[in-house]
């Protein structure tokens, strides 16, 4: 996927009120081979530290990953993440696409994502639950009780 390709699409399911973003992305198989994938990004204000991403592969399984919202946002502009989830801009000067690598045991998948629609959607999630306020609604006494039982 290149920032210059006209077939890169972003579609929102309804308005931002749905807290979902549907993107047509590509899985990078090698230098010249790519597989189209649909990715559904979901944000739940009740669980604001993470974004759920469901990958829908035509004729294949649905795969769900939960990715830290801050990690995802930072990775659109600079290298972010260690271990199982890593994201970085493909061409930092252009900022049209980012690479997302997901690793599980002995398998890895590399995806290319369009930055502009994902960045816009993430900014909306930060308007709903600002950075630094994700844990503001937690009753720490109850949470501590639950942990100790």
Describe this protein's structure.
With 149 residues, this protein is α+β, with helices and mostly antiparallel strands. The protein has a single domain, classed as Transcriptional Co-activator pc4, Chain A (Roll), CATH 2.30.31. Helices cover 20% and strands 38% of the residues. The chain contains three helices and eight strands; from the N terminus they run E-E-E-E-E-H-E-E-E-H-H. Strands 1, 2, 3, 4, 5, 6, 7 and 8 form an eight-stranded antiparallel β-sheet that branches. A hairpin with a 7-residue loop joins strand 6 (85-89) and strand 7 (97-104). The chain is globular. The protein starts with 9 loop residues before the first strand and ends with a helix. The model is unreliable at 1-16 (pLDDT under 50).
What is this entry, summarized?
With 149 residues, this protein is of the alpha+beta class. The chain contains three helices and eight strands; from the N terminus they run E-E-E-E-E-H-E-E-E-H-H. Strands 1, 2, 3, 4, 5, 6, 7 and 8 form an eight-stranded antiparallel beta sheet that branches.
What labels would you give this structure?
single chain, alpha+beta, disordered N terminus, 3 helices, 149 residues
């Amino acid at each position: 996927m290149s920032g210059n390709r006209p077939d890169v699409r972003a579609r929102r399911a309804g308005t931002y009120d749905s807290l979902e973003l549907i993107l047509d992305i590509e899985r990078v198989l090698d230098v010249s081979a790519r597989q189209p994938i649909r990715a559904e990004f979901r944000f739940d204000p009740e669980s604001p530290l993470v974004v759920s991403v469901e990958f829908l592969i035509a004729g294949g399984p649905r795969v769900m990953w939960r990715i830290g919202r801050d990690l995802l946002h930072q990775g659109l502009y600079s290298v972010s993440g260690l271990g199982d989830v890593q994201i970085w801009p493909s061409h930092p000067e252009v900022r049209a696409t980012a690479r997302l690598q997901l690793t599980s045991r002995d398998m890895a998948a590399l995806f290319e994502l369009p930055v502009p629609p994902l960045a816009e959607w993430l900014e909306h999630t930060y308007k709903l639950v600002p950075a630094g306020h994700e844990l503001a609604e937690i009753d720490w006494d109850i949470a501590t009780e639950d942990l100790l039982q």
